[in-house]
Every structure is written in structure tokens, then in C-alpha cells.
Amino acid sequence: MLRRGHKKSRTVFANVQCDEGRPICSLCISSGRECSYLNQVTPQTHLIPAYSHREVSTSPGNTASQGTLDRTFEEEINLKHMELLVHLATDKELLILTHGPKNQVPNPELALGLKKGLESPYLMYQLLAFSARHLAFLKPEHSTSYLHQAVTLQTRAVSIFNASWTEINQSNCVDILLFSSILGHHLLTDTLAKRTPEDGLDEFMTNYVQFVDMHRGVHTIAMTAKTQLMQSELEPIISWSASFTSRSPRGNDCQRVRDLVNQAESLGMEDKKACQLVIKFLQVGFDAVFSEDEHGNRYHMLCTWPMLGPPEFTALLVARKPEALAILAYYAALLHHGKHLWQIGDAGAYMLRIISDFLGSEGEYWLEYPRHSILQSLQ
To answer: Where does the record place a coiled coil (predicted)?
Structure first.
């Protein structure tokens, strides 16, 4: 039976900055504090200032409007954004974790996303942000500049999404689901890449829980329009993903951690159900990466697993329950199977190390499988 590790945890949301979301930002809700932006009025967002407050007439006699139009077209092209757009359209590795069946058009989300991004600027900003994030990985000598672009563009994307939000319907459900997917990829990449000065579990868990809550929240909003989505261009992807996550687990890679949860006296029935559910999804993920006949993206669960877990499991992670941390170590082992993917790298090995350090010697038996799995691949 695992007991709590010997290291003392600090308050998880102690250092969280307000994200200025309206009417109340999600991070302030999570940290249980009063939002400083609660009583502020959301300003009108002008996406295209030259046209946001007037009509452009095509009449030859309207010289003022014609002059405005000419000045707009004389403005310099933002070559930095053009670089991101070209990279987005030409790089095959950028969205390698995009889910879908084999023999489908490569990166179907991207082609549709570029089209929809012209209608929903928050989606275009997020696509450009993720492109900048990838270039930061590819060109480490210029990573500071690209990371700055990525943060700026993503912040703008979320701001526009919050400001323009009314309700989800047939006209915007595809845009919102695509936004959720790309944002999730981006947040996961940032979370797995971050290495804190103290290099410990508390700092990682703060970032990880924020990623899970935000990704799950936006995805949940999008999926409230599932009926409309199933009549959209995304139907093949949604159907395949639903089929993937509803599979019955076949292997026994997670048997030891499953036994740990069943034997845990400190977990209530609801907590055990939450743990067993995420363990089931982990085993489906292991089954896929080990299968030679996988008819789809075998790494789909690497990005999907964090948001599949119910809030009860996230709460166990926040509380640093040893059983939940042991499950997270198995997710680290699953991630390690995708170490060749640019979003993943050595994140699995890093996660296993900080979890092992936190649990101490009492966790050695329960972490034997993920430790053996990762060490074996490093030899």
C-alpha cells in the first residue's frame, strides 16, 4: 500500500496568474480567489480596424472610402506571419499527433482549419501560434523569438475567443472544435517541454493541471454540439476518435497499477471508479502503440488521455494521492513510446523521474513497469 511521499507539497495554484478571461477567468475560479477583472467591461474587439467601423463603398464617386481602401492595401505585409503560414501549410510533422484513420488526407484538420480560420480569427491566431511553437523547436538558435511569437499569438487567440463567445451552433461548432484540438496540442507541448529551476513534481503538476482543465473545458464546450458536428466535415475524424476511445482494453500492461487502486483503503468508491476509467484508457493506448495492425494514428491516446479523465481524477492529482501519481507514471511510459515526436521528446522519462523522487522507496514496486519500459527503450 502506498503512502504519501515524504516531500511536502505547496499550494497548487499559489503562483497562478489571472488570465483576464471574462466574465471570470478560469484560473481565478480554479484557485478560489476573486478575479480582478470581474467588474471590468469587455472592450469591443476590432479584428480588422480599417473596416470595423465603416462600410467600404465600391462607388467611384466615394473618394474617402476609396482612399481608405488604397491605404489598407499599401500597408506592408507582416512577413513573420507569412513565414508561420508557409510553415503551417508545408511542414508534415507539425500536426503529427492529429488523429484520423489511415489513408486519409494528411492533416485534415489543417486544411479545414486554414479555411475556417478566415471566418474565425481566433482559430487562425492559434494555428499561427502553434506554427511558431514548432519553429522554436526546429530552430533553437532563434527559439526565444519564436516562443515570444507563439505566446503572443496564443494569448490573442484566447482573448478573441473569449470576447466573441456567444453560443455554440451549426455555424461555429467546427471552428470551435478545431480550436480546441490545436490549442490542446499546443498546451500539451508547452507542458511537457517545461523544466523548472527546482525540477520537481509540484511545479510540473501546477502546469499539467492547468493544461488539463483548459483543454477539457474548451473541448467540452465544442462537444455540446455533437449532433451538428456529426453532420459536418469533421464527422469521419470524430467517429474514428470515438471508436478508438471506446475500445475494450486487451493487454495487461496496467495490471499492477489496477491492483494498487483496488487495494487502496484511502480511496472512496467514486475515486476508484475515476482511477479505473483512466487506467482503461491507458491500456487502450498501450494496445495501440504495440499493435502492428493499427488502422489509425497509434499515438492518438498520447494527446487525448489527459482530457478523458474525469474531474475526480484531476482532484486526486492535485491532492498528490500516491495512487493517482502512480497512474500518471504509466502515462509517462505511454508518452515515452512517442519520444520521436517533436511534442514529446524526453518528457516521459522526465515525468517518471520526478514522480519516483516524490513517492520515494515505497513507490518502487508500483512503478516497476513504467521504469522498466522506459529504461528498456533507452538501452
So the answer is: none
- Whole-angstrom distance, CA of residue 88 vs CA of residue 179: 15
Measured CA distances, 129 to 47, 150, 156, 163 (Å): 17, 4, 9, 18
pTM: 0.79
Cβ-count burial of 2 within 10 angstroms (0-12 exposed, 13-18 middle, 19+ buried)? buried
Start-to-end CA distance of the chain, whole Å, equals 31
Nine-digit cell at 274?
475515476
Q: Helix or strand or coil: residue 366? A: coil
Give Cα separations from 266 to 89, 324, 333, 378 (angstroms): 51, 12, 25, 35
The region of weakest confidence among 44-58, 88-102, 136-150 is 44-58
C-beta separation of 136 from 192 below 8 A: no
- DSSP state for residue 170 in the 8-state scheme: T
DSSP character for 142? G
Cα 60 to Cα 9, 57, 295: the distances in Å are 70, 8, 59
Cis status of the peptide bond prior to 23, with omega within 30 of 0: yes
Among 323, 319, 241, CA closest to 274:
323
Write out pLDDT tens, residues 264-289: 999 999 999 999 999 999 999 999 99
**Considering the chain, what is the average pLDDT of its residues?**
81
Give, in order, the Cα–Cα distances in Å from 222 to each of 9, 280, 284, 304: 34, 24, 24, 15
Model pLDDT for residues 331-350, shown as the tens digit of each residue: 999 999 999 999 999 999 99
The residues, ordered by sequence, that sit 6+ positions from 197 with a Cβ below 8 Å of its Cβ are none
- Spatial distance between the Cα atoms of 180 and 186, rounded to a whole number of angstroms: 10
Question: b/e per residue, 107-136, with b = 16+ CB within 10 A?
Answer: bbbbebbbebbeebbbbbbbbbbbbbbbbb
Count of other CB atoms within 10 angstroms of residue 345: 18
- pLDDT band, residue 166 (cuts 50/70/90): confident
Q: Locate cell 471552428: which residue?
A: 175
Report the pLDDT averaged over residues 162-176: 89
Torsion of CA 357, 360, 366, 370, to 10 degrees: 20
